Amino acid sequence: MTSDDPDRQPLALLRRALERAARQTVARQLPIELPGLLVEEGIWSPAEALERIDSDSAHHLAALAPRLPRELALAALARADTSGDSFHGVPGLVALADRALELGATGEVFEVLTRLPAEARGLVIARVGERLPPDLRASAVRLVLADFPLSGDPDACVARLLLAGLVPEQRDALVREALHALGEFPVEPYQLRWMARIGAVAQAVEQAREHDEPRLRAPALAAVIPWCDGRQRAKSWATWREDVTALLAAGRRPDLPLPLPARPDELAELVTLARGLPQPRARAVALAHLAVHHREYVDEALAAVRLLDDLDRVLGLASLLPALAVTSRHEVAGEAWALLSRLDVDRPSISDLFKDWPGPIDDPPVESYAISPTPADLRTRVAVHLAPVQRREAALALLAAARRIDDTHYRAAALAALGAHLPDPEARARVFARAEALALASTRPWLGLVHLLARVDPEVRPTLARRALGSLPDELDQETLHNLPPLLAALTPDDAAALVTRILLAGSWSIVNDLQANVAAALRAGAVRPLAELLLGEDAPHGGEYVLPLLLRHADAELHPRIAAAVLEPFEDEHLWQFPEILPAVPWLSPDERAWLVARIPREALHSKLGNRREPLILALARPLAEEGAFDLLRPLLPGAGRAYRLAALADALPFLDPSERERVTKQLFGDLRRGDCHLTWHVVPALAAAGHADALVDLPTTLDTRNLARIAPHVSADRRPRLLELLVRAALDESRSLATSTGLRALGSLRRELPRDVLARLCERVLADTAESGRPELLRALVAEARDDDDEHDAVDPGLTSALVELAGPTGLPALVALLDDLDAAPSS
Fold first, then answer.
1. Backbone angles phi, psi at 730, to 5 degrees
2. Are 764 and 13 in contact (CB under 8 A)?
3. What are the residues facing 611 on neighbouring strands?
């Protein structure tokens, strides 16, 4: 049943993918500054660190670059990602080029810079150009200015300001270009800081003073005052003082930096201001900003920070560490590390808290937002400053934490997904018991249990469903909501309705497709009436408009008119902004209700900020109206729908048209397909196949994509089936085609059994390799559930990747795949 190539045996394919995925996960879980710390402590060599970091992470590269020797820096620079089109995307390139220049590799770096794409080259040269010798610097700037994009872009603005600092003779022109590059974007304080820093102080002050409101003008002036002199400084300082006084009097504090560094005669005013802030956190933040510029205030800032709650105290201590003398730094870092060891920071990012505290002062930001630090990043920032005797132990602890992969819940689910295909009932039962035990022992047991539900025998399902329901957390996050349909489908109607009610009332959903999939699953569980009463009530929760149309399919004679009236009510409004939400209801409307709806569709195209709201409804109505012999109701709307939608609607009605119109429409559709000019191929192709034209579709000169080929397969004759398989094999071997995804494999359906084994193995290899790049949790999840599409019935169906692996392995090879997942703890993770 499998390919003869041992490297393409399903077990070998899955093992390699899991190993690669584990390495990717660990690489992404490494705190940004940890690889550099591991190199400093001798735990990793520079080469080892470079190999183990996430090669796609520009910020990991940037943090490691200062520890790389010359040859490694050049090698990393040569193969670094050059697709960045913003300062946020090029810090790795910048740091590697800077490091290589520092180590004397001027010629090699300049050669690399000249080969970069225009946007990346401009951004990198703007950052490292000052390290180039004068002749190469001038050449580099000329090269950049010849093709660097000028658009409504804050990065283009800052890049030109930095370039102006490299070629002072062009400063005024480049400052004008920088302001022009902003387009409609306002000038931000960090941009004004760079403008003043390169010597364009008058222009920076002028831009700062253009703000009318104190809340905008105060931070803008604070950014430029440190570079002002004489009367200009005195006048700007006086305006800043007035603005801050007004803000404080209004009960607001300026939440952006003070004008720092300050001159001796100005410091007393800033210290008084900081000490007088009434909120302890605001006072500590202001004193910390003062302290990193004027270190005589470090002790006072530390005292203020130590009065704060634990997390803010750690953030404040971490921000002050670079300003402390070595001995004090070790002591304060130890204090922060001890706090972190007992803090349970259960959040992916702390950027909302960290942004107020001072950052590095030697290198002002070139963008308006900083990297969002994670709790692990914060721990590493603190560990770097620990005393040597503690630092190594801390580095090893951080590495051990990064190597832990929290995916047992998906491992349990994947084990059940593959184990469900074991032919021996007793073997299946053992695998399901193991999967349940793994799920219950995981950090997110509900995610393992809900997918196990879809595989176990029906008599076991109610008990397992109650267990999964009881394990749900109080707050349902997006990942949980995405995975809930199997649980909802297995619950009693009352429990399913209660869970959907909880989702709607909590407002915890944010993706409409997930909400609709959850409601569809609850309806399959029989929760029609309780959900109808909830959504039709006076206090119907937000989101009901997205799911009420789904209820029509399951409504009885008593509920149908009530639901239909609620679904159709908004269409009294001529703007019809709810069009897409009614589409699932269209097949289940009565003939009179459909006629009423058609009469309210405007004759002209309707476009709004929400997109095309008219033609999708026309298309949804075509087939139901044609089936009931009422297609003529739709005809007056077709001329205004545009050629693509008009022909697609006629394609849906094809079997019900008179012979002459059917022939004419068919010719038009095939003409568009042959020219590659059919904009609704996905809709038109299955309609033509169902109307008896599948063989002709196989013979089109412009080959259909693989999903469309799979969709027409049931209608293709035995004579043309070899040609269909030939096209599918060709697409499978073509790496530029879209078949190599799990959903692409799923679309093949039963055709998977007809593909040559080596072709199916190659497809699995590509899908596994691509999915492994996203990490091991994502790879395991891909074995459990397909990425959601418009089909809300597929939640309990195996993903295409899993079905293909099962097909490849066959009954004899499947137990080895199950054993591999069962023993995943033994697999290498780094």
1. -60, -45
2. yes
3. 608
In 552-613, which residue ranges form alpha helices assigned H by DSSP? 559-568, 579-582, 591-599
Q: What is the 3-state secondary structure (H, E, C) of 528-569?
A: HHHHHHHHHCCCCCCCHHHHHHHHHHHCCCCHHHHHHHHHHH
Residue 569 to residue 549: CA distance in whole angstroms:
12
180-188: long-range contacts (C-beta < 8 A, 24 or more apart)? 180/150, 181/150, 181/151, 181/152, 181/153, 181/156, 181/157, 182/152, 182/153, 182/154, 182/157, 183/151, 183/152, 183/153, 184/152, 185/152, 185/153, 185/154, 185/157, 187/157, 187/220, 188/154, 188/368
In the chain, how many H helices and how many E strands? 47, 2
Tokens 């003082």 sit at which residue? 241
Write out the H or E segment, with its range, that includes residue 306: none
Burial track 121-134 (b if 16+ CB lie within 10 A, e otherwise): bbbbbbbbbeebee
Helix axes 659-674 and 643-652, enclosed angle (nearest 10): 130
pLDDT, block means (10 residues), the chain with 830 residues: 68 96 94 96 97 89 96 94 89 96 96 93 95 94 88 87 94 93 87 95 95 93 96 96 92 75 95 93 95 96 95 93 93 95 71 80 77 83 95 96 94 96 96 96 95 92 95 91 93 95 79 88 95 89 86 93 89 58 89 92 64 80 95 93 91 95 95 86 92 94 84 93 90 66 84 89 92 95 78 60 94 96 67
What is the Cβ-side half-sphere exposure of residue 568, based on CA atoms within 13 angstroms?
A: 21
Give first-to-last CA distance, the chain, whole Å.
Answer: 33
Q: CA 438 to CA 432: how far, in whole Å?
A: 10
- pLDDT, position 772: 95
Residue 208's closest CA among 230, 183, 233, 184?
A: 233
Give dist(CA 271, CA 287) in Å, integer.
7
pLDDT computed for residue 1 by the predictor: 41
Read off the tokens for 315.
């953030």
